Amino acid sequence: MQTLILLAVAGLLAQLVDGSLGMAYGVTLTTLLLVIGTNPAAASATVHLAEIGTTLASGISHWKLGNVDWKVVRRIAIPGAIGSFAGATFLSRLSTEAAEPVMSGLLLALGIYILVRFTAWGTPRGNLGKPLRKRFLTPVGLFGGFVDATGGGGWGPVGTPALLASGRIEPRKVIGSIDTSEFIVAVAASLGFLYGLGHENINFAWVGVLLLGGVIAAPIAAWIVRHVPPRVLGSLVGGVIVFTNMRTILRSEWIDASGGAQTAAYIALALVWIGAVAWSVRAHLADRRLERELAAGTPPDAEEPVEARE
């Protein structure tokens, strides 16, 4: 019972992050599952089975609000499904000893991306432009799907910035299309894990409580979006993911760092993390000041940070 309660809390926390940032549900939840000692392949399988429910609900919501570009969904979901099925079967065939540092390495990279992305540039943005083509969406889908399955998450961190950077689709439709297509990716990954692991190696009670935690968190996440700056939250969450997975890698057989080296790495990371959060808070306050000045018709201060004027 204690484990189920902890998993429900983990699902709630992961959905809070995803609902506030538009990404990182799988990355956050898989990191938490690894911390409590879950097998890497089983952790990713559990996350993706739970995501079938959360992504379906999210996709329906985005569809009703007109946030979905169905051409983009069709062109990215199929290669994404292929990549996620391949990633799931690949991870299922690795031993636990080999899989843990592989997954932690991918999660570490995604955590660094989230930390840098939200600290340096804030909330992702984009501009309306020309239609996205298959030759662009296919490799993004294949890579995003493979990383999503092998890393326990990554569809949003890979797909969302790629589509936004193209400048060819509205930001709201980027998030809506990525969230909707993730349902197909989650189904394909789940089938891959069921094929590679077998259903007897997956605890469906865990899947249920994770889904329950996500459902409970949905309205709370909406409140967080209004009261906690996404830029600051992204820096906080990115640091947690980096710190947790760096700990796993430093203790793995690949590196086997000494106690002194581990301590030095943790201190260096803590300093970087504190600086990143402080920078995000400063940039957020500068943005707020600029918004108030523009609303009042006052010219922006010439000494405002560049990112506050964008």
TrEMBL record:
The keyword Transmembrane helix applies. This is Probable membrane transporter protein. InterPro entries: TM_pro_TauE-like (IPR002781), TSUP/Inactive_protease-like (IPR051598). Keywords: Cell membrane, Membrane, Transmembrane, Transmembrane helix. It is found in: Cell membrane; Membrane. The chain crosses the membrane at residues 72-91, 103-123, 204-225, 232-250, 262-281. It holds the Pfam family TauE. It comes from Murinocardiopsis flavida. Belongs to the 4-toluene sulfonate uptake permease (TSUP) (TC 2.A.102) family. It is a multi-pass membrane protein. GO terms for cellular component: plasma membrane.
